[in-house]
Specification:
single chain, 593 residues, mainly alpha, Transcription Regulator spoIIAA, 2 domains, six-stranded mixed beta sheet, 21 helices, 8 strands, 58% helix, 5% strand
Amino acid sequence: MPGMPGTTPGDDGRGRALPPGLRTLLSYRREWLAKDVVAGVVLTTLLVPQGMAYAELAGLPAITGLYTSVLCLLAYAVFGPSRILVLGPDSSLGPMIAATVVPLVAASGASGDAARAVALASALSLMVGAVTLLAGVARLGFVADLVSKPTMIGYLNGLALTILVGQLPKLFGFSTDAEGLIGEAGAFVRGVADGRTVPAALAVGGGGIVLILVLQRRLPKVPAVLVMVVLAIAAVSLFGLGRHGVDLVGVLPRGFPPLTWPQVRLDDLAPLAAGALGIALVSLADTVSNASAFASRTGQEVRGNEEMTAIGAANVAAGLFQGFPVSTSGSRTAVAERAGAKTQLTGVVGAALIVLMLVLLPGLFRNLPQPALAAVVVTASLSLADLPGTARLWRQRKAEFLLCVAAFLGVALLGVLPGIAVAVGLSILNVFRRAWWPYNTVLGRVPGLEGYHDVRSHPEAEQLPGLVIHRFDGPLFFANAKAFCHEVVRLTRGEPPPVWVLIAAEPVTDVDTTAADALEDLDRALNERGVSLVFAELKDPVRRKIERYGLTRTIDPDHFFPTLEAAVAAYRRLTGAEWTAAARSASVPAPPE
């Protein structure tokens, strides 16, 4: 039925075994055709210059960006579940591809060997495709969540700076052999100081950056990249900039490459596999986030595992035709959406137009200046950076700001691929840190409010003499059991010690065997001082685990209560205590961020 998960409008269930793109054909409407064709034409004007620019960013010949664009568009049109998501060469993957491929080319003594670089990049694309296909089949979409937003912001900020610095020599009309952010920055400064700047190249590149940024801000519906490319080609033709030291793209190879299995060496496989894992992770994170963003605007359902399968198919297709790894693009998808795209046919039209250009007009971009491609890459890098998001982290949560900075430094100082490893590692460590010491506090009664509340937020909260109500907001397991016990002991150090330590255990979602042993030792230690360990609001599965561990033989079974109110009432019957606003015997430390 229309609107049900897994179906498309007009699909009565026929063809469910078909790939998503082909299923769309079963419900295709004639009135969509004109919009898809127009959107495909508009999209092509962006795909061509960006494809060439991002190929060079990856250390590959510009033509490979067009091969890649064609194959990934066609593959996603067949296997992609999103109707308007656009795949292609991506600015965030370019440096990762270069970081994997360029050292292998240099190590083989084949510096500048374009054929070996293309073969390595194609093999890398096949590996990325294999990883993402396996992830889709195994339903491992959650892997994309391994990188938290603060660490991803830091990673992308570092990536943006790395791309920007790496493109500056090209923008100024010369090249360097330096590697790494610091090395490239130093080489650029020395090149400028030595007078290697080509004024005409700088004028083209700098003017291109300004033009793109102004048009994107003032006239967002105008294809800024296309306008800049056309004007740059016109400037070369009118002023003969090629004779003034400006490097040009030149005539592209005619035709389309044959099906090719990339030939690489056995010792290339390990570094390629390491690079493929990092690229696959970033590609999946980009795809899931972009698919979710555009699906929420169009009312479509996000199918994460199908998206991973489609990304895998696109990478495999690109790798078999001298392409390189791809991802989704928010900017290109937005262009297609604004142009009226309705289905995956938009990508098919774009791919067909690129093939026609390669076959019939390979010299169309022969006068395109290289600094103009650098301008495309630089403006893309600026869109990767999120300085407002970084500032928001500083204002809202200093600990996550520090994670962001650490991920940024990982990319800037260690490199792009180590940087993604740092980002993932920091995200995992942050999860562990929060589980190791979750928020915990003492609760009290606030006049006029139902229930029991955090005394940090309500210093006026009343307490019962001899009763400490302690809340621990997380599971009890091997990593935090000792810290939990230390905190409970700290809360009983006053003189006289409390009669009961009542654990508000509703947030405790699990207790493992290590924590159970620690609780048993804690209960014995407290009993020796005349203090009882009492629990309230334990979830049924957790209570059953405690009984299975035998803790109820140590902790009095009468010290487990269904609610905090029942436990407090029992304590008052036992002691006759009355609520008081007297100062607490134990201070409550501020929680870690």
